[in-house]
């Protein structure tokens, strides 16, 4: 039945919920220090415990034990304007309200100084995630309503200094993902008479990957880092259900039976992309330091997605055709006093989505990032951090046909995001 075929489509977009703070569904936030410099120099900074995640090789520069904690609040401002049409008729409804929901992103890092040349690290981050929820009467409700994705990554790492210039590091990661997706199901005249049926998917998965990195110190003031983060390809297993008014079942038993056949277990295999990062850090003098990062992300892995129902009904295949992307940023630190450090940075993040494949679940766009922050040393071994990041996407267009029963949605998305991060580091 065409009315429920869109449900399989919405399930397949599990990795594509938006908006997130970085391109696709990536979340770069994790450390307040990263945020302050707009993520510049992450692969080469290596001056606090967050390097256990950003470049494990950098842990060799820490001749102490350290624990870092950060918490980031993502505050989006979002608006859709446009119409949805089905068979040439305008779909009644509203514009969905502020569809992007706030996010809280925690980050935790620890480094153990086993010896001058051998270090061990642990990090807990949320590298992918999003919260998006249109109001129930959204004109595009047959394409999407609620999209929730949370990805928690636990990383273990070890680092070893080979000589005075070169260090290497890396380790395994465990990836825990959970999601909930909903949309309305268009039942034609029955929807007009009794209201829409609602499709709901909840699923989770556990996957594994690894990170390897190298840090080369040209001298005490200049260093470069190179990091490869592997793809993670878990299988999401969950339950899909379609709920509807009991009156619909009375009026149309055949419809009730068709919807019931779409209720049960289902799974899909997805790819969280691998990436390569190159970073530089230069301490110019006692006050000034500059840094830069360049990253390549393998988003083309999100090409064709398949949903496989457990009840052996036909699988659905949908091309996504995401493109590989680049991210670049530059930043600077200025030490005002021995206790006070000012930070700033600017970055640009290309989106894997273009005008040709933007959907209500993926209203993604290229992003300009402007960051700033301050670090204050409370004690010789304890510091606190505050960072603010503005993410500017501008206005982007959408002209997408999800399925005959979902219709064609045309209009524009306008999204801006402010993130505020607080952090604390302690050496012992």
Radius of gyration, in Å, reads 23 Å
What's the CATH superfamily, by name?
Outer membrane protein transport protein (OMPP1/FadL/TodX)
CATH class: Mainly Beta
Largest sheet: 14 strands, antiparallel, barrel
Tell me, what's the shape? elongated
Helical/strand content category: mainly beta
CATH domain topology: Porin
The proportion of strand residues reads over 45%
Order of SSEs = HHHEEEEEEHEEEHHEEEEEEEEEE
Please mark out the parts with pLDDT under 50 across 5 or more consecutive residues, or reply none. Answer: 1-19
Looking across the biggest beta sheet, what order are the strands in? 1-3-4-5-6-7-8-11-12-15-16-17-18-19
Number of domains: 1
Q: Give the tally of β-strands.
A: 19
Walk me through the structure:
With 428 residues, this protein is mostly beta strands. The protein has a single domain, classed as Outer membrane protein transport protein (OMPP1/FadL/TodX) (Porin, Beta Barrel), CATH 2.40.160.60. The chain contains six helices and 19 strands. It has a 14-stranded antiparallel β-barrel. β17 (367-377) and β18 (382-403) form a beta hairpin. The longest helix has 11 residues, at 2-12. It is elongated and about 75 Å long. The relative contact order is 0.21. Residues 1-19 have low confidence and may be disordered.
């Amino acid at each position: 039945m065409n009315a429920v075929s869109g449900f399989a489509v919405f399930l397949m977009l599990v990795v594509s919920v938006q908006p997130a703070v970085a391109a696709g569904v990536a979340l770069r936030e994790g450390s307040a220090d990263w945020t302050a410099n707009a993520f510049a120099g992450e692969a080469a900074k290596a001056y606090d415990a967050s390097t256990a995640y950003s470049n494990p090789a950098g842990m060799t520069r820490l001749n102490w034990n350290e624990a870092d904690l950060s918490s980031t609040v993502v505050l989006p401002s979002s608006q859709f304007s446009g119409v949805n049409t089905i068979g040439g008729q305008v779909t009644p409804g509203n514009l969905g309200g502020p569809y992007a929901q706030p996010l809280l992103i925690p980050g935790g890092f620890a480094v153990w100084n086993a010896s001058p040349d051998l270090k061990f690290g642990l990090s807990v981050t949320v590298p992918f995630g999003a919260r998006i929820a249109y109001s129930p009467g959204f004109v595009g409700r047959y394409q999407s309503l609620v999209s929730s994705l949370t990805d928690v990554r636990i990383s273990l790492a070890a680092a070893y200094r080979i000589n005075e210039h070169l260090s290497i590091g890396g380790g395994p990661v465990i990836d825990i993902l959970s999601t909930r997706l909903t949309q309305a199901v268009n039942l034609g005249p029955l929807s007009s008479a009794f209201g829409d049926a609602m499709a709901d998917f909840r699923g989770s998965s556990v996957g594994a990957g690894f990170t390897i990195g190298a840090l080369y110190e040209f001298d005490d003031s200049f260093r470069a880092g190179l990091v490869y983060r592997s793809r993670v390809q878990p299988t999401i297993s969950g339950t899909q259900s379609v709920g509807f008014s009991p009156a619909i079942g009375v009026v149309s038993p055949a419809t009730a039976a068709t919807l019931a056949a779409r209720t049960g277990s289902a799974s899909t295999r997805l790819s969280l992309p691998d990436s390569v990062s190159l970073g530089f850090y230069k301490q110019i003098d006692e006050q000034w330091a500059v840094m830069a990062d360049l990253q390549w992300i393998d988003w083309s892995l999100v090409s064709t997605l398949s949903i496989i129902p457990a009840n052996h009904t036909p699988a659905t295949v949908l091309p996504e055709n995401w493109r590989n992307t680049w991210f670049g940023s530059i930043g600077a630190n200025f030490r005002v006093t021995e206790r006070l450090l000012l930070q700033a940075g600017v970055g640009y993040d290309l989106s894997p989505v273009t005008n040709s494949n933007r959907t209500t679940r993926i209203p993604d766009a290229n992003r300009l990032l402007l960051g700033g922050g301050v670090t204050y040393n409370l004690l010789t071994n304890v510091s606190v951090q505050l960072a603010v990041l503005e993410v500017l996407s501008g206005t982007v267009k959408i002209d997408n046909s999800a399925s005959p029963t979902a219709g064609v949605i045309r209009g524009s998305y306008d999204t801006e995001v402010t993130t505020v991060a607080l952090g604390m580091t302690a050496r012992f």
